[in-house]
């Protein structure tokens, strides 16, 4: 048994059959809608929550009393991965550029917290 060789052959997977395209539903013309508004009912589907809303809801239910601790842990993990992969100097440059980006975003939103903090620090000197 030790001298037997195992051979494998890779074959392409069969293609799935294409689903037939549904026929387009005819749209009522404007005169028919104006003449009989009760006959035409618009179905409004409830908007699905976005990815950020779903993530925020999951985060709030999974970590109800330790949201900031988990976010701090995630940030620490990202910084550790950056330190090990690109080095200290490049990580500091990335952190500086992210901080500048946040400050520009806050300034554009009309709530320049970081800009005000830097101004306060410069006044004290």
Sketch the topology as an H/E string, one letter per element.
Answer: HHHHH
Q: Assign the structural class, choosing from mainly alpha, mainly beta, alpha/beta, alpha+beta, or little secondary structure.
A: mainly alpha
Shape: flat
Q: How many DSSP H or I helices? A: 5
Largest β sheet strand count, sense and barrel closure: none
Low-confidence stretches: none
Radius of gyration over C-alpha positions, nearest whole angstrom = 29 Å
Q: Between the first and last Cα atoms, what is the distance in angstroms?
A: 82 Å
Arithmetic mean of pLDDT: 79
**In percent, how helical is the residue content?**
55-70%
> How much of the polypeptide forms β-strand, as a percent range?
under 5%
Total strands: the figure is 0
Overview of the molecule:
By secondary structure, this protein is an all-alpha fold. The chain has helices spanning 30-35, 51-62, 67-86, 88-109, 113-124. α3 (67-86) packs across α4 (88-109). The protein is flat, with a radius of gyration of 29 Å.
How would you concisely characterize the structure shown here?
The chain is mostly helical and 125 residues long. The chain has helices at residues 30-35, 51-62, 67-86, 88-109, 113-124.
